[in-house]
Amino acid sequence: MPSPRNKSARFVAITTLCELQKSRTPVNTIFTSVLTEHPLENNDRQLAANLIFGLLRNRESLDIMLQYLCRQPLKKFHPFVLQALRVGLFQIMYLDRIPESAAVNESVKALQAMHLPKRLHGFVNGVLRNAIRKREELLSLTENPASPILNHPEWLTKSWEKRYGRLETLRICRQNNDQAALSLQINSCVTDRDTFGKILSQNGINSHSGKYCYNTLILEDFNGTVHEIPGFTEGHFQIQDQGAQLLAHLVGPMTDKGEYLDACAGVGGKTSVLIQMAKTPMASVAAAEPDKGRRTRFTENMKRLHPDLDIPLFSGTLQELATITSKRFHGILLDAPCSGTGVIRRHPDIRWNRRPEDLNRYQEIQLELLQAGTTLLLPGGTLVYATCSLQEEENEQVIERFLAANTDFILEECSASLPSKAHSLCNKNFFAPLPGNEIDGFFGARLKRLAEASLKTLKR
Ligand SMILES: C[S@@+](CC[C@H](N)C(=O)[O-])C[C@H]1O[C@@H](n2cnc3c(N)ncnc32)[C@H](O)[C@@H]1O
User: Fold this and answer.
1) Is 189 annotated in the active site?
2) What is the pTM of this model?
3) Does domain 182-239 correspond to CATH entry 3.30.70.1170?
4) Residue 243 burial by CB count (10 A; 0-12/13-18/19+): exposed, middle or buried?
5) Whose CA is nearest to atom 26 of ligand 1?
């Protein structure tokens, strides 16, 4: 029996998935805490991550197959047994490089390590061996084009069907079930895309330029960790989707000597893009973030990407900042907390973690943040509202309610702030890319506060 200190990749994957089933904590947070208790070597950690993420992308298909193999409803299974079956079946059905016998044996061993009764070991062994025998039959269950298995909850696909139509919804789901390529945002304060592309190529890493942003290189077939990419420690790049970069672009063009705020800065991904944009007109950038863990990562990232700058970071909420300072900004990026339904491809747990009732709760928070943003904005300034959600409740409805309550603001079109390659991602006045091959799903709106003079004319 494995010692308590020496658990397998499968055990860690099953334990992580069991914890995820109990709470709505992001899977990465749970995985990190399980790894603290049961550390794994690099290869095993990578395998555990592949099992967890791959399984979350295919959960509905796996459950249909499991239900075909077992008479008892899956809901009645012991949680560890259900996850051990899913992990075993995922390897049998979708991972070519793992021998089928290893997939079965490792699930059974995980049950042993958990000290579950022997009859359950026999049950899992039997179901998975049956799956090997019936592999083709099982595949046909989910490959029937008449009833596509989307591997997303119904409330979400229904909301997308209403908004984008059936075909587009199928495309988004297929996109979300594929693994995304790594997208590097090249730090223009340190290097440029072509020079950095050559360095990658000299190190045997293939890359191609991003379709929508100039400063992007896409690594389609890179399987290592980010630390293995040359130039990481020296701040030559950060990992960032092109849509996320373009949201920061919406704040521009920047005013000469203007002052800008990244109001929900997180770990500083968009703060760095704002700093890169601010280089030429010598504008300045500040940030606010209430979460301590994120602030620590913000500071690490800024040290790596902009070691010569001291970026002011407010440790608190935007509402708190709005009450304690008299400072006013030319532009504010408000990348609001949201459901994240546009970035499911990179965070496959989101689809199972969210509930329809979350959307209205987020809407209230988003409006409250926008209102705090107005306090901090100069007349004539621009407040950029951004989410990584595809839901109307968090996007158009928020803007509609905001404009109704704030008559000194108008909606400006987004395309003028974006590179021409990205104009096709705008819909009416909004920046609204749907998840695609090279981009995640986002929403952005430019809210301009009228200057005092324009306000007076309006009132007359
Ligand atoms: C979508 S994330 C931002 C990601 C970030 N802009 C980036 O590019 O890495 C939203 C962030 O808003 C922060 N947040 C939540 N409530 C807030 C509040 N009341 N004021 C300011 N930030 C808040 C969260 O901690 C989180 O980091």
Assistant:
1) no
2) 0.92
3) yes
4) buried
5) 266
